[in-house]
Amino acid sequence: SECPFQLLYVSTIEPYKHHYQVIDAVAKVRAEGFPVVLKLIGGANPTDANRLKKKIQNIDPLGHFVKYLGFNTHEELLLEYCKADVFIFASSCETFGQILLEGMASGLPIVCSNHRPMPDILGDAGVYFDPENTDSITSAIRKLIESPELRAKNAIMAFDQAQKYSWSLCTAETFSFLSQVLYEYKQKKYDSL
C-alpha cells in the first residue's frame, strides 16, 4: 500500500495564488509515479470556491489526490501542518507572505513561488518555481520528493529563517532603535548648550 507524500497549500482561493497550476503540477507528479496528495486549505468567495471544486472534479474525479478543506480553525490547521510532508506556496503577489512564514515556522520543507517578496522571506531555505508555469512547479515538487536530505536541510533552514521574524526580536530591535534615537537627540541637545 502506498504511503502518500502530503503537500499542504494554505491560502485564500484567488487567481494570483495559482491553485490551478499547483493542481495540474500535482497531477503530473502523480502521473510520473509519485504517490502525492495535495491538501488545499483556505477560504474563498462562492464563485472562486465553485470554480476550484470544478477544477478538482476534472483533474481528480474520484477525490484520490486533491482535497479542498475550505476554511479551517487554528487547531485544525495545526493538525494539517503536522500531517504534511511539504508546504507549498504559489502566490505571485504578496506584500508580506505571512502564510509562508507560518509554513517556515512549522518546520516543513517548502516549495515556493519565485516572485518577490517570497525569496526575501524564505532565502536559501526553499525550492523555488514560477507559479504561472506548471512544469516549473512540477519540477520543484519532484526535486524535494526525490531528496530526503534536501527536505531535511531545507526544513531546518526554513525554521531557523522564521525565527528572524519573532515578536521578541522585533520588540528588542524597536526599543534599541528608540533608545538610540533618544540618546542622539540628548547628545545634540547637550552639544548645543
User: Averaged pLDDT, please?
Assistant: 82
The CA-CA distance between the termini, in Å, is 82 Å
Q: Into which percentage range does the β-strand content fall?
A: 15-25%
SSE pattern, N- to C-terminal: EHEHEHEHEHEHHH
Structural class: alpha/beta
Strand element count: 6
Describe the protein's architecture and organization:
This protein is an alpha/beta fold and 193 residues long. The chain is built from 8 helices and 6 strands, in the order E-H-E-H-E-H-E-H-E-H-E-H-H-H. It has helices at residues 19-31, 46-59, 74-83, 98-105, 118-122, 134-146, 148-162, 167-191; strands at residues 5-10, 36-41, 66-70, 86-89, 110-113, 126-129. A 6-stranded parallel sheet has the order 3-2-1-4-5-6, sandwiched between helices. Strand 1, helix 1 and strand 2 (36-41) form a beta-alpha-beta unit. Helix 1 crosses helix 6 (134-146) and helix 4 crosses helix 7 (148-162). It is elongated and about 80 Å long. It starts with a strand and ends with a helix. The relative contact order is 0.14. The model has no long low-confidence stretch (mean pLDDT 82).
